[in-house]
Design brief:
Elements (H helix, E strand, L loop, with lengths): L3 H34 L1 H7 L1 H15 L11 H9 L16 H30 L15 H4 L7
Helix pairs in contact: 1-5, 2-3
Length: 153
């Protein structure tokens, strides 16, 4: 049987090593995320696509001029007599313009793409972590050096 004190100490040592690896992994993840959110990198990799996207977004976000129609009271009275004037109550939900609908669609696609990229980065981050099995303690050879005669007694 193993000594409970030595097994507890071994567990503490394993936890210390895991914590030290986690700090580096979190720093790496944060740095990769910063790279994904940096618009400069996208501009450097595809400047024409970036500028085209910016121009399209500007075109869609700038509202068009409102059209004002001026009708004289006499013309309005004549149309009312001919029953060509229809007054509707617009109490229902207002439909957005083509630009706002397209903007919502593009933003939804960008959001889904960002989530997919973040998920892929997280999966890649988690798959590159070292195995969480027992680590060699002091004086014990690692699995890589065990068969190479580097530390055997």
């Amino acid at each position: 049987m193993t000594d409970p004190k030595s097994s507890a100490e071994q567990l503490r040592e394993e936890m210390r090593q895991l914590r030290s690896h986690m700090d580096a992994d979190v720093e790496n993840f944060v740095e990769n995320t910063r790279g994904l959110l940096d618009w400069h990198s996208y501009y450097e990799s595809a400047p024409w696509l970036f500028l085209g996207t910016a121009a399209l977004a500007g075109y869609l976000l700038v509202p068009s001029k409102a059209r004002h129609v001026t009708v004289s009271i006499d013309d309005l009275a004549a149309l009312a007599k001919q029953r060509q004037v229809v007054v509707k109550d617009h109490a229902g939900p207002a439909k957005g313009s083509l630009g706002s609908n397209l903007t919502q669609m593009v933003m939804g696609m960008l959001w889904k793409t960002a989530l997919a990229v973040a998920t892929q980065q997280l999966n890649q981050f988690l798959s590159t972590r070292p195995p969480s099995g027992p680590t060699p303690g002091p004086g014990r050879p690692s699995p890589e050096t065990r068969g190479q005669g580097g530390g055997g007694k």
